[in-house]
Amino acid sequence: NQVEESKKAAAYKAVDNHVCDNYSIGIGSGSTIVYAVERLAERVRKEGLKVVCVPTSFQARQLIITNGLTLSDLERTPELDVAIDGADEVDENLTLIKGGGGCQTQEKIVASAAKCFIVVADYRKDSRSLGEQWARGVPIEVLPLAYASVARKLQKMLGGKAELRMAKNKAGPVVTDNGGFVIDWVWEKVGDWQQTNTQIKMIPGVVETGLFVGMTYKAYFGNADGTVSERQ
Ligand code: DER
């Protein structure tokens, strides 16, 4: 279908443009990245590329292994040549909301370890400002003991609505790969995402936000007509 085709087009173009031999590559999480790993595995086979891949989640680790790619980690490769990941929404300044899949903590760590961070997404993520298309707010990973106090402080300090993310196929809240909980914060009005991100991160109990500010080198958006738009 159109959305899947557009994800694939963006992912393939990003891998073709940004992966070279002997690269260490951060592999993101979600559904769009699946196409990027598919293309990466194809290029490794066809071109005999030697690359190592560092995952950003249990899902990404499974993707790397099942595609026969060489698994590495940040201990072995603390600096990566490139990281490729999806996003829930991208604004005109390349500020991202990530964490729809609850993996933003490892995703942000891997993205920050990379010399070049690339986003791949379908046209539904291509916005002028955050909140235009993504309505589920900013995902925030918290330590379980602090979820209620963080939610309360967040609402008091920044307004909006902060809710604990409940699981669908498990009783109780979503538990992240790091053993944390996720709070989704639907904001009312935000002027400066850099400042907002810092304010949220400073609340004791917050592990990581799904706001990626000033981290993205380039975003590839698959369009409904099969073309790919790039924003740098
Ligand atoms: O949860 C995440 O951060 C994912 O990368 C998400 O933002 C993108 O997921 P998708 O590729 O399935 O839309």
Strand tally is: 14
Structural class of the helices, strands and pairings? alpha/beta
**Which compounds are bound in this model?**
D-4-phosphoerythronic acid
Indicate the mean pLDDT.
98
Strand fraction equals 15-25%
Helix-strand topology string: HEHEHEEEEHEEHEEHEEEE
Overall spatial form: globular
Strand order of the largest sheet: 3-2-1-4-7-13-14
Question: Would you mind describing this structure in some detail?
Answer:
This protein has about 230 residues and is α/β, with parallel strands linked by helices. The protein contains six helices and 14 strands. It has helices spanning about 1-20, 30-45, 60-65, 105-115, 145-160, 195-200; strands at about 25, 50-55, 70, 80-85, 90, 95, 115-120, 140, 160-165, 180-185, 205-210, 210, 220, 230. The strands form three sheets. A seven-stranded mixed β-sheet has the order 3-2-1-4-7-13-14, with helices on both faces. Strands 9-10-8-11 form a four-stranded antiparallel β-sheet. A hairpin with a 5-residue loop joins strand 5 (about 90) and strand 6. Helix 1 (about 1-20) packs across helix 2. It is globular and about 55 Å long. The two termini are about 25 Å apart. The mean pLDDT is about 100. D-4-phosphoerythronic acid binds near residues 28, 31 and 99.
